[in-house]
Every structure is written in C-alpha cells, then in structure tokens.
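I am still getting used to backbone structure tokens and would like to learn alongside you. Label the sequence line and the structure token line clearly, so we can match residues to local backbone shapes. Go ahead whenever you are ready, and we will take it from there:
>
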Amino acid sequence: MKKPIRLFSLLAALALTANLAALPALAEDAAPAPAPTATATAVQEATTTLAATPAPTATATPTPTPAPNPATLLLSGASWGGTSITPGTSFNLTLPMVSSTNEAITSPSISISLPEGVSLKNGGSLNQHAQTAVYELVADSTYSSKTVMVGVTMTANVGGIPSTGGDTIQIPVANTPGATAGPEPTATPNPDGAGVYVQAVTVTDIGGGEVTTVKWNDHINIVLRVVDHASARNHVTADEIATRINSSIFQYTGTGEISQLVEGTDNGGDYYSYVLLFRDVIYVGGGNTLPVDLSYLDSSMQLQQFSVTIGQCVDKDPKDPTGVKSPNLILRESSYGNGAVTAGTPFTLSLTVYASTGSETLNDVVASVTLPEHITLTGGSLSSYVGTISPGGSRQVSFSILPDASITATVANITVNMAGTGALTGTAVTSSSIISVPVSQPDRFELGNLDIPDTIVLGEAASVSLSFVNKGKNPVSNLEAAVSGENLGAQTAKQYIGNLAAGTENSVDFDLLPEAAGPLTGTITLSYEGVDGSVKTVKQEFSATVEEARPIDDGGMAEMPVEAPKTGLPIGVIALIVVAVVVAIALVVVFIRKKRKAAALNKLEDSDEDL
C-alpha cells in the first residue's frame, strides 16, 4: 500500500525558503493525487488559497439546532476574525457559552473536535474550563475543503443543576485573493506511467514572501511539486535526481534542490512526488513558460523534460526601450601579484569586468588600458575584446605589462576603460577605473672583497674587513653589520652603519684577538631595509689559522770581537783637510785663468792702436 500523496503547502515553502534551512513542506494528508487529466482548476483549490488578509471581524450564525430544553447550554455566537479563514494562516475561534434560561453558569467547560488538516497552532488542550473559550487554530496550507467543521461540546452547572449542550460551527474557507492558479501540466503521464507533470506551483520573493506579480529583473524563488512515474518504477530517491532550468527567460545557474519524496498512485500507475526548489531565479522577460530538465544518476534512464507556465510573470515587449534598463560596466576585481612589481620585470594585470543589474545584455564589450610613462606592454594590443556580458555576469581579461628598468616613480597609475552596447536599445555603456600599482627597483646590494690574514699569531691583534656596494637605484636603509664565530675574541660584535645611497660603496672592519691556537672561523652578517620596508640579510664567511708565537734563543750567541783602538788623526779631520786642499787648488786655477785673460786683452788693445 503506497503512502498518500501530500498536497502543496505554500506557507511552509515561504518560511523555510526565507531562512534557507529546508525546502517547503508541500504535503498534507488528503485524497490520492489527481488524475493525470486534472485541470488547473483542481490544482488551484490545492495551491492558491494562502495569502488572504482577514476581513473585518464578523460573527457567524451557528448551524440551527433543535429548540433547547430548559437549562440547555447554547453558544451565543461564534467568531473567527472574518467571514472566512485562509489555509496556512492562524485564526482565533471564540466560543461564548450561555444557558437557555439566562441563569448564572458555574463550573463551565467547553471542548471542541477538529477535522483532519486543522489543529491548535501552538498545541495545548481542546478542552477549556471557561464560559468563553478562545482557540488559536490553523488549517494546513493545503487544506482543500471549502469549510472547516468544528464540533462543540459544553457542560456546566445552571442553577446548581448539571446541564449540557452541543453545536457545530461551519467556518468558510476562502481562496487566496490575487493568487494565480497552478498551471495546467504541459506534460501528462502516459498510460504506461512514464510521464512527468506538475501538481502545484509557488512563486515567492527571495525572503520567502508570496508574490502575485513578477516583473522584469525580479529575483524570485520557484517551488514545484512534481509527479514522476519513472523515478517510482526505478526506485530513484531525491538525492539521485538532478534538475535544471533550461531557459533564457528565467536565468538560473546550477541545479535545483530536491526533497520531500512521497509515494502515490494515479491513472498512470505508481509515482514518486517530490518538491523542486529553484532559488534566486532572475526573470528577464520574453515569455512566462518555464522549461525544466530532470536527469538521473542512473544514466540508463531517459532525460525527462517538462514545462510549466508561471502566470505571475508580467511579460512586456523586450524591444520596448521604455522598459529596458542597461547594466553598468564595473571593474569588479584587479590583480597584479603579491606586493610591489619590480622595475624591469614583466607582470600580468588581471581584470574582472562585471555587468551590474539590468534588463538587457551588453554586446561588444571592450576593455582597454592607458599606461603611464615608462610602463609598456610586453606585446599585443592595449585593447581586449571581451564579447557579451549578461546582467549580473562577469568576464576576465588580462594584459602583460613591463615597467621600464629606468622608472623612478614608486607607483604606476593604470587607467582601465570599459565600453559596451545594449543588445536591445543600442545604448552605449562606458566606464573607467584607475589601478595604482606599486613599483620597486630590483635589490642590487652586493658584497665586495674580504680581507683577513691567512695566519694570525696568538696574542697579536688582527682584523677582518668586508666591502659592499649598492648597485640599485634605491637607497639601502638602516644597514647593520654583525660578526660571529669561533675563536674570534672580537672586541666589537655589532656595528650600525646607517644608510647607503644608490651607487655608493663602503666597508666594515672587525678587530680580532684569538684566544687559542688553531682554526678561527666566523661569519659577517649584513642586514638592511629595502625600499618596500622588508628586512633583508646577506652573509660572508671567513677563516684563518692561529699560530703560537715563536720563542727567542739568547744562549747561543757568540761574543763579538772588540777591535783595538786605532792611533792617528780621526777620519773626520782628514776629510776636512782634503776638502780644504781641493778648494785651494780650485782658487789657484781660477786666478791663473783670470791673469791670462787680462794679458790677452792688453795685447789686443795694443794691436788696435798700431793700426
């Protein structure tokens, strides 16, 4: 014996959709499912009586009862907050009790009986010890009867005599005003039970509230109660079924949610009935027929396709410019890597172009970049053709960019331009954004020569020296040097050097005083801050050998012979005499030459006089 099929429950769908915790409860115990040829009118009774606003409070006249005997208990009237009640909406049933003789009543008690599908909203007892009883009731959202029949039993003491009374209240059930009937199934079950059709349709907003009109670009939830004979034949559960919307009118990505699988039988045979929930569907116009695909994990089962009419959709002429809203183009995301880009090194600029909310697609979307000085492309064009973007859609585009090695700016401002054309209106849509990309020069801090003697004598001081140079275009800040190692005996282990400008060099020295003979090893560590603020380190290792000092041997020296004193003039006196002789000879030579010259002159003068 199969379980009875449950009818469609809109309020449960609305509430559970609102908190996204579960699918709507679309079932209530009722008669077996409608025959395959059931019309939309039959579905309407089960699905569209859910959103009525209660009419002003009115008092119903109880069903006529036989004339009471003396001291019979009667209802002086019953009210439920309106002329009718709405399935799925709670109401207060008020039952005031009187005696037929208008005598005082003591020890009153009122109890009620409810039909299937109607219950106390918050639980409790159906029996109240009060002269006027008030019950908060609710009919299931799929309650299909046109009336709610409530049986009333009353007991009390009237004039000290136990009395009883009874009545039946008939409460009308109203269809929900403005709700649309469930669509007539477009796919009906075949005689062999292979068909799929829709029993009921619910449309809500994203928050789960019922909607009676769906306009262009509205975001809605669509809930369908589906009868599926193929799944019953193959014992396919809800988690083995996938469902998709196959439509450009209703934009929806991904697969729908499936739950509430129950069993039933109709003219087509046994079937499974379950709920399909499609969240956040965008209605873009162009019709109101929703095509749905059903596929099964069992690939041997045939794909099922059916469609349903969403009567709440207000379809306008999609080519009417007055009803079209063009999306805006927005640069949603940009990426150029982690941290700053390095001058002289290419990087990839990745962009996400996004089309905002609208009611038409954008065609021929183009993204381009405007580059500042010293920034170029590694190749290709400054413009990239993106293509078509639907409202709410996005596309990615990228450019390979090279900052010149000679760039001095620390930030490159790149302008991104976007342009497209409305597919329906031809409206030009443009926008631009600026991306600030930090640029740093490459770090070219390098070590130079290391100077340390190969051998150090124990007890004697030595030094180790290391030179360095900043070949980069940015200064090096807060440069420090430290020495560490074995057998160093360093007098100073750390030195603060300061800033090193671009294109300059310097060196650092450490004094060493080894404490033991043997190997000496150490490391000089230089640390500094780069232009991006990060601390960097470079190291240089060194080594030397420490030897014991050589002892001095005094005992083996021979006595030096002592020369006998010499007689005669001292050497210095002799030298003075020699110099005096030489000077005298020179003076004599000069005197003789002068005399000869004078004589020659006199003789020449005499010759001139003779002439």
Helices lie at 10-19, 40-47, 229-233, 571-610. The longest strand covers residues 269-283.
